[in-house]
Amino acid sequence: MTAEVASGPLSATRSAPVLAPLSLGPLTIDSPVVLAPMAGVTNLAFRQLCRTFGGGLYVSEMITARALVEGNAKTIAMTSFGPTETVRSVQLCGVDPVVMGAAVARLVDEIGVDHVDLNFGCPAGKVTRQGAGAALPLHRVLFRNIVAAAVREAGRANVPVTVKMRKGIDEDHLTYLEAGRIAEDEGAAAVTLHARTAEQLYSGQAEWAAIARLKETVSSIPVLGNGDIWEAADALAMVEATGCDGVVIGRGCLGRPWLFRDLAAAFAGEDLPSAPDLGEIVGMMRRHLDLLAGSFGEGGAVRQFRKHAGWYLTGLPVGPAVRRALSMASTRDEVEAIVTSLDPAIPFPEASRRMARGHTNGPRPVRLPEGWLEGVDDPTPPGGGDLLVSGG
To answer: Do residues 13 and 237 lie in contact, with contact meaning Cβ atoms separated by under 8 Å?
Structure first.
């Protein structure tokens, strides 16, 4: 496989190879599909809903290592798992090897997780300005020390550690190839690349050629691809174009949890199921709201559900009044009255398949700690870089 591949989704006119199960240390994931951690989205309710549509690895929202070590109540609540979550997967973000090691130890020893993903890809300003997320791999010695600490503590219980990253801070400060080699050397079980820079945020196209280059560079562990997978054909095209070992799904599943069903069928070489009509989608919406209520109570559930309602109805001809009413609903009864009024026979529009949901912002200059672009071999953690509260 050469690096000279397309920069974005390809037409799936040929059948891509059927992917083997994904091996992450002792874990075997039958469908090589991972739910990307998304702040305020991939909570217990959303993971449970998505899991009903197919196998894969379903990762929690990002939590911060310091907040976990300090016992922050919100953070502890975010490490809750349901009875169907046979693989407990948590994503951690941090800037201090000692704190990261302590956080992983707590996840392994007290919470009983089966998988830890390290976040080195978050482009949010409140994260990068602390030297965390997508900013951290530039400081390669510190990056190495953090990965090594996490792998060491997780390894006591044979728990695999994976690394998720972006291409770099911007096109002048690309870090992904060196970071991939370091993660591999330090015992990471896999690496994931969101093929954009932090500066891009979610704008433009993901550069899939970068995933191919990383796959050529990292040869002993799986390389997973992330970016611009809106439907199953995109996942097949990414694998065909890059040779990656699996795919990580972010915005493509917002309002479309059935995407995991389509991906499982595509990677098994089976025909894709028909897209759901509006009646089926409303059933998913009700189930999602029920699951949210189990975690957040009625008021919290409805507030959380408002953004999801917009995503579920993206591209569907329901009218602005319905969307506005759902965005202002405050009780489950209000939501039920609105969705009951919808025509269940409306088909899912073909044009809606590729409509972006979630973040579309960018590009934007990356916020960094003062002097961060210098001293890339300084192993010192940035002062004040560990946030005490997790979540978006």
So the answer is: no
Parallel/antiparallel/unpaired status of strands 22-24 and 27-29: antiparallel
What is d(CA 83, CA 168) in angstroms, rounded to the nearest whole number? 37
Confidence (pLDDT) at 20: 86
Phi, psi of 269 (to 5 degrees): 75, 25
For the domain made up of 22-267, give the CATH fold. Answer: TIM Barrel (3.20.20)
Contact of 193 with 167, CB cutoff 8 Å: yes
Closest CA to 31 of 15, 20, 43: 20
Structure tokens, 9: 């989704």
The pTM of the full predicted model, rounded to 2 decimals, is 0.93
Catalytic residue among 50, 93, 122, 253: 122
Task: Report the top-level CATH class of 278-347.
Answer: mainly alpha
H or E element at residue 193: strand 190-194
- Low-confidence residues of the chain, pLDDT below 50? 1-14, 16, 392
Decide if 122 is catalytic: yes
- 263 and 33 Cβ atoms separated by less than 8 Å: yes
